[in-house]
Predict the 3D structure of the following.
Amino acid sequence: MSGETITRKKKKFTEEPNFTERKTYRPKDVKETGLAFIGHEISEDGKAMNQFLHYDQLYTIRHGQNSKFFIGLLDGKLWGTRCPKCGDTWVPVRTHCWNLDCNLEKTEWVEMPLTAKIHTWTIAGWSGRSSLKRLPIVLVYAVIGNSKVAIANELHGIDPWDVEFGMPLKIIFKPKEERHGIVTDFHFEPTDDWEPTPITEEKERIKQLVEPVYQWVKTLK
Amino acid sequence: MSRKVCIVGGATTPFDYGPTGFENIEGGAADCIRETREEIPEFSMRDLDLMIYSHFSVHFGHQLCSEWIVHDHLGLVGVPHYRVENGGNTGGSALYAAALAVMSGHHDVVGVVGWETMDSVSQSQGSEFIALASDIRYELLVGGIYPIYYAAMANKWMKDNNVSEEDVATIGAKNRNNAMDNPKAQWYRNEHKYITTEDVMNSRLISYPIKKYDCCLMSRGVAFTLVCSEEYAKKINPDGYVTIDGMGLSSCTIRAGDRLNFPGWTERYGKGYPEMTEFGACRNAADQAYKMAGIENPRKEIDFGEIHDAFSTSEAQIYKALYLADENNIAQFLRDESTHMHGEIPMNPGGGLMGYGHPVGATGLMSTIECFYQLSDLIPKKHLSKKTEVPDAKCGIVNSHAGTGTSISNFILRRC
């Protein structure tokens, strides 16, 4: 994410958020050439043809009413929302209460504590293209503070086989300059007083499954 | 009183990944309809009065409204058409839409064509495209792809229900082995081998406790199903038509973590349901379908099923959601091989998503077609032997499933 800052002030009749500091975030290798047929191949028997279509595009995700949550991440804060009618609190946030009796009441922002508890977990040995080099990933669904829902994020600072249900966690933010206002600006780590339990049959099984993943990741360029 | 809805025919292209020579979807759709006509030659293209197209992701083809290309190719210009998209439950939802159209009395003969072309990008990119159906703001970035979400849900479910890795691995082996009797199945056409539970256990880790052979396949494929009124069914396929006696469609949260305390589910099924472990939408859709079909004891009254085995773990979770077992006996239900061909209620005799394949928009239709074949005595003709025929089957269930259990439909099909 680099490039020059561009200043743009579009005149609008209505009062809208104005973005005066927008960088050109388009990575150098994103060409945005539009759809282009760039080549083909024909099977040996001459009967089947494949054609190659290339498409590169930078998207703008406009966060609108959810923005405070993502701006909070840049500041190292976790914002949740709370329904003033029923009192339920959520992170991930809801800008309107989903309890049907609250009739889409507008929620209020509340700052959440940087502690959580594991609801469930898994250890990924395979993932989407953009995450392959980070494998194995310990992914947990954890409940932050008094949230009514669990949020997914990575658990660092632990051997994968030591993760357990109900484990207490702390939330750690990346250094400020590395944050992008996205959920991976933070991750979970075990609390300081947490100790792994002794090795079990299941832990041995997980070790056996994870070992080839470590080896495979080393071979990735 | 609404009208009875029937299925009189259907077929798929072979499901596969990579070059096969039948890759164009409109050609595949035409071939499926031609095959359907072999059993019901009286059916004419002129009879179709509505077409519903079942297609999940534009990302795989980079062609918006590809259904228009199919529709033109079939010569159906002037016949009304629209596309249904509902994640992995696209096929089930398209069937639901077709059934509603007939039930209403507004349409008599509805064709449903479904497809997906997942081999147009690499496997890992494909996984990421599918994961665009999760909430990308919160889940995609944290390494999330569907097997990972399902693994997190299954891990807790298995602990809560005393189900072991081996117990679910039996399902991965079962469905692939069933597919070895089915020449259209991707497993038959590619790996082409019988596997054991141990092979599943030894396959590479995808996301604990899910391994490679616990996962379904990415596929290219097209399917066609012909849905109609009973009057038309009696005319076109008097001895082989099947009735949709029950159907249900329900929904749950997009993010699995949101369903710990969802107020609407607590109202329906008690506090804490569905948690992150149970498929609440599957249970709710089953309740609707069972009620409509008058089913009180599904394990006794249903003979077999074609269900959405995206993962061996989720097939096991679906058994429970469909009331085939509960927390006290689900582990034993699995250990008894109750859903194998020799068991009391065979599941996925056609191979399912793990054996037949999972070209998303075609999948629910493939399950419907396999269920139809069982109920109209076509298995010996469509499969390689009678090994995967459910003897004297009179009632089958079709299950189609999306997201992390986000949209699920169930259908009860009965022999005429």
Remarks:
- DSSP finds 18 helices and eleven strands in chain B.
- Chain B touches chain A through 51 residues (CB under 8 Å).
- The first helix of chain B runs from residue 25 to 39.
- Chain B has a mean pLDDT of 95.
